[in-house]
Amino acid sequence: MRRNHKLYESPGSTLLWLSRCSFALLLLAVAAGCRKEEIEVYRIPKEVAPTMMATGDMDQPHPNVEWDTPPGWEKQPPKPMRIGSFLAKDKDGGTADISVSFFGGDAGGVLANVNRWRKQVSLAEVTKNDLDSLTTAVDVEGGKAMLFDMSGTDPQNGKKTRMVAAMVARADGMWVYKMLGDEQTVAQQKEAFVNFVKTARYPNG
Questions:
Q1: Domain membership flag for residue 69
Q2: Is residue 170 pLDDT above 90, yes or no?
Q3: Structure-model confidence comparison of residues 12 and 74, the more confident one
Q4: Are 88 and 181 in contact (CB under 8 A)?
Q5: Rounded to whole angstroms, what are the CA distances from 23 to 15, 20, 29, 30, 188?
Q6: Average pLDDT of the chain?
C-alpha cells in the first residue's frame, strides 16, 4: 500500500527563494538601466562648429591679391577659410584678430552676414531697411567697400568686444575683411584696418 507524501517547505526556505528571485530581478533592472543610459549618451550628437560665412565656395581658386600690412600686425599661420590672418596687440595686453577671406558669388548676402556678425558681439538682428544706416562706404580699388562697425559683448565671457568688417564686391566674388577683438584694441586699430582694406590690389581685375 502506497502512501501519498505531501511535500513541505519551511517558511525559511520560501523566504530564501523569494529573496534570491528579488535580487536577480534587481540585477536585471540595474543592467537594463545602465544599457539604456549608455545608448542615450552615445546618441548625443556632436556639436558642429559654425562656419565663417552663411554660404560661399571656398574650394575654388581665389584671385591674386596684394596688400600693405600695417606696422605691428603679426602674420598668423594659415587657417581654414582664410587667405590672410593677422594679430594686433595693444600695450595693455588686448588683442584683435584680423582675417581676409574670398567667396564666390555674394557670400550669402549682406544682411545674413551682418546679422551673424552682430550675434558674435551679442547684438540683436536688424532688417534690410536698417542696413543703410549701418553701412559706411569706403573707396577701394575699382569701387566701394561696405564697412560695418559694431560694439557689444563677447557671448562667451561677457567682456566688451568690437568688430569692424568690410565687404568688397567684385565681378569674381566677394572679399571679406574682418577685425574682431577687445573693444580698446579694435578702436586703436580701426584706422589701420580701413587703410589695409584700401591698399588691397587685385591684379586679376
A1: no
A2: no
A3: 74
A4: yes
A5: 12, 5, 10, 11, 71
A6: 77
Residues 147 and 166: their CA atoms lie apart, in Å, by: 4
How many independent structural domains does the chain possess?
2
For the stretch 31-61, pLDDT in tens is 554 444 333 232 323 333 333 333 333 334 4
The domain that holds 155 is classified in CATH as 3.40.1000.10
**pTM reported for the whole predicted model:** 0.69
**Domain range enclosing 112:** 74-199
Residue 35 has a pLDDT of 43
Kindly report the length of the chain. Answer: 205
Task: Answer whether residue 90 is part of any domain.
Answer: yes
Mark 28-64 as b/e (b = at least 16 C-beta within 10 Å). Answer: eeeeeeeeeeeeeeeeeeeeeeeebbbebebeeebee
Q: Are residues 123 and 184 both part of a single domain? A: yes
177 shares its domain with 92: yes
- Let me know if residue 93 belongs to a domain: yes
